[in-house]
Amino acid sequence: MAEKTVRVQQIGSPIRREASQRQTLVGLKLNKMHRIATLPDTPSVRGMIAKVHHLVRVIDDAA
């Protein structure tokens, strides 16, 4: 059975944000505008998405 994944896209700029939010975007492999990353759907990744929810968009939950 395939591992569940989640696709996220960066829609907000990290300029003038706290350093921890910028580092979270880098941890999510999103450090440039409109970049899309496919990540494993784990509680830690969901927590990182929740921390920068105003800067990212979840494209889809299924894979």
UniProtKB/TrEMBL annotation:
Keyword Ribosomal protein listed: yes
Record InterPro entries:
Ribo_uL30_ferredoxin-like_sf, Ribosomal_uL30_bac-type, Ribosomal_uL30_ferredoxin-like
Q: Which family does it belong to?
A: Belongs to the universal ribosomal protein uL30 family.
The Large ribosomal subunit protein uL30-like ferredoxin-like fold domain is annotated at 6-56
This one is known as Large ribosomal subunit protein uL30
**Keywords for this entry?**
Ribonucleoprotein, Ribosomal protein
GO CC term, one of those recorded: ribosome
**CDD domains, per this entry?**
Ribosomal_L30
Q: Which Pfam families does the record cross-reference, listed alphabetically?
A: Ribosomal_L30 (PF00327)
| UniProt cross-references to PANTHER family, sorted A to Z | LARGE RIBOSOMAL SUBUNIT PROTEIN UL30M (PTHR15892:SF2), MITOCHONDRIAL RIBOSOMAL PROTEIN L30 (PTHR15892)
